[in-house]
Hints:
Layout: E1 33-35, E2 52-54, H1 61-64, H2 71-76, E3 87-93, E4 98-103, E5 112-119, E6 131-135, E7 142-148, E8 155-157, E9 165-167, E10 174-183, E11 197-201, E12 206-212
Antiparallel strand pairs: 1-2, 3-4, 3-5, 5-7, 6-7, 8-9, 8-10, 10-12, 11-12
Keywords: Membrane, Transmembrane, Transmembrane helix
Region (Disordered): 1-33
Transmembrane segments: 45-64
Amino acid sequence: MQPYPPQQPPGGGGEPWPQQPPRPPVQVPFQYGQAPVPPKRKAPFVVAGIAIAVVLGVIAFVVVNNDHRSPVEWAKAQPSQAVAGDCIKVISASTTDARVEKVDCTSPDAVFKVGTKMDGTHEQCPSDSYDTYTQSGRGDEFTLCLMLNAVEGDCFSHVSSGTTAKVACTAADAEARADKVVNGEAAESACPADTGLTLVYPEPGETLCLNEVTGT
Length: 216
């Protein structure tokens, strides 16, 4: 893992933390929808959100449903059924075969949680801390503002890609640790001044304080 760039505490003097420059949305021919790269974040290390395009259309159930669930179970897991508080698993972040689905929030695959859901695909999430998933077409257009599904002590790998995963903090690929989760308050001031990355989620009202996982 590359070392974090130099940083200054929030509110302190000196140069500001480097920001991840925005990138254009992924373009896919005949795409049904897409999840654009999230806005730039102030952070001492690069955190890239989900960059996926949802390529849909008429897809046979037998092709998509390869885990032997019933049609009803499969339908309930679709992102169109997600509401605030539901958890999301990224199955594939490929621009040609991108899939996400609802999962139980206690699942190790539940890396993201829906902070808020909005109708339409041009809405802005309440802050730059969210990752954004959008889907459009056939009258079913919506935006999911996704937050990390974390409790204090959780560690994550691949935070600089769309393949973020929960891992043991002792794992070789562990990069970021949730040292503090503040429920009921969405403000950078909720985290200690020396926090590596502060994620502020106005909906539902939560602040996540992340720091680099150092070697053990």
